[in-house]
Amino acid sequence: MKRLLIALLLIQPAHATTRIKDIAVIQNVRPNQLVGYGIVVGLNGTGDNLRSSPFTSQSIQSMLDRMGVNIRNNLMNNSQVQTKNAAAVIVTGELPAFAREGGRIDVTVSSLGNATSLEGGTLLMTPLSAADSVIYAAAQGQVSVSGFTAGGRAEKLTQGVPTAGRIANGALVERRLPIELERFKSFTLELLNPDFSTATRAADVINSYTTSTYGGRSARAKDLRSIELLRPPRLDAARFISEISELPIQPDTPARIVIDERTGTVVIGRDVKVSTVAVAHGNITVRVTEMPKVVQPAPFSRGETAIEDRTAVNAEQPDGTLFVLNGANLQSLVTGLNRMGLKPQGIIAILQAIKSAGALQAELVVQ
């Protein structure tokens, strides 16, 4: 039985439709990244080594000073705090659009020093700021770690990443983003996959809906990425965006083949076309075998036993069959490649050769 093609094929139905909200977003309505520096305490001897992580020691001293605990005089004879139950961490999170004061968001806690595990630790209150250096949230809570490390002197077992964890709803929003949707009379939709045809189709679908519902056109395709929307009078922005987002559209996809040579994955788009081309593919196998032979001297001679080298070289090349691929559509292309009984690496080589010959009417992306 021939070996079938092992590939991943993304095939869209001929009339596949999707919602506008799944292929486009509102410009400037997006989450914002937050970052902060904090201390995790309560670790069971798996924290930072303070001799090699001086910033952790300085952070502990500064924290205790703010709490009214003076330990600097006790450190005259010892330059560092001797504890392994604390670790310096970087806390990251995303502030969603329209988040209000008092809301909660998830945060990720990652070790900054040489701590071996954050399991069982508690993050102390950590301010989180955005790119404008303004504090928008504060994080604190028990760190949840999925990985673990166990072992002895001779062997150690590590599963997952024990030096990174997550705190669900661990950050409290202190400041909201200055976005007021109601004051905008127009919006801009940005396509996730820019394409002139998709932008034009989306504008036509929106105009057809607004004309029949509100008596006027509201959309205009500015370029391959942006669609400008004009909000109808006496209609609130949230309702208008909700109605527009639910409209169905058939997006256009470019003719593209994506191949990953490391894993042997081949992804072929629906609109890929191949001109009629003849393909022959074969492998040559060369075997080199070493057969050393021991040579004994003649009786009563003064010779010595020696080893004589013998090498056998054999080359085999299976019969190559010439196949004709007439890729009028995706199904014809896949059927022709499967008929050849190739492995994924052979498929990748043939697709690259067809592209070089000018017979592949599609973009070839090699990862």
TrEMBL record:
Subunit comment for this entry? The basal body constitutes a major portion of the flagellar organelle and consists of four rings (L,P,S, and M) mounted on a central rod.
Where in or outside the cell it occurs: the entry states: Periplasm; Bacterial flagellum basal body
Q: Provide the GO biological process annotations.
A: bacterial-type flagellum-dependent cell motility
Q: What is its main location?
A: periplasm
Give a Gene Ontology cellular component term annotated to this protein: bacterial-type flagellum basal body, distal rod, P ring
Report what the protein is called. Answer: Flagellar P-ring protein
Query: What keywords appear on the UniProt entry?
Result: Bacterial flagellum, Cell projection, Cilium, Flagellum, Periplasm, Signal
Which family is it part of? Belongs to the FlgI family.
- Molecular function as annotated in GO: structural molecule activity
Its lineage reads:
Bacteria, Pseudomonadati, Pseudomonadota, Alphaproteobacteria, Hyphomicrobiales
Please tell me whether the keyword Signal is annotated for this protein: yes
